[in-house]
Design brief:
Blueprint (H helix, E strand, L loop, with lengths): L4 H21 L4 H4 L9 H20 L3 H15 L4 H20 L7 E6 L3 E6 H25 L9 H6 L1
Antiparallel strand pairs: 1-2
Helix pairs in contact: 1-5, 1-6, 3-4, 3-5, 3-6
């Protein structure tokens, strides 16, 4: 697959997630999993949510039914619920590979797919738009992680797209 804007944005998403993991692994052990009063109960919960949601969108892009997608979402979310930060990072790496494998088979990211939504019924999405949504969703939750780190007296890591472009 040729390099395009959607693929480049997904590359950024993977890079930004890696930056967050590298930063978290340098902080005291409790920072990752300790319960705090915030948007999510812990930073780990944010990262598990982001991982499971990225799986959901990959399954939708692959054409899975909403029923099968939700089953996979629940199973994978449960699988990573009790893992260490290193294990979760490895799961993220595997999911990125799955996404890259899927993207490599797509010759038209501007094509429309039709899927079901439990509340909205049938929906049409352009593949490139789903990829952009995955990136936006990730950016939002990486912001949650940064805010939660500040609540714990720690610093986040810059993951701005401009920094990614300058690397």
């Amino acid at each position: 697959m040729e390099k395009n804007r959607a693929k480049n944005m997904y590359d950024y998403h993977v890079w930004a997630n890696q930056q967050v993991f590298q930063n978290l692994k340098q902080l005291p052990n409790g920072v990752y999993g300790d319960t705090i009063k915030s948007v999510f109960p812990s930073i780990k919960d944010v990262l598990v949510h982001l991982y499971a949601t990225d799986i959901t969108w990959l399954e939708i892009m692959r054409g899975s039914t909403i029923h099968d997608t939700f089953k996979k979402f629940a199973r994978r979310r449960e699988e990573v619920g009790g893992v260490s930060i290193n294990q979760l990072e490895s799961c993220y790496d595997g999911l990125a590979k799955d996404n890259y494998d899927f993207l490599a088979t797509q010759h038209d990211l501007e094509r429309t797919i039709v899927t079901e939504h439990p509340k909205m019924g049938g929906c049409e999405f352009v593949l490139a738009d789903i990829i952009h949504h995955v990136v936006n969703h990730g950016t939002y939750h990486r912001g949650n992680v940064s805010a939660m780190l500040h609540q714990q007296g720690e610093c986040g890591v810059p993951t701005d797209y401009v920094i990614y472009c300058s690397k």
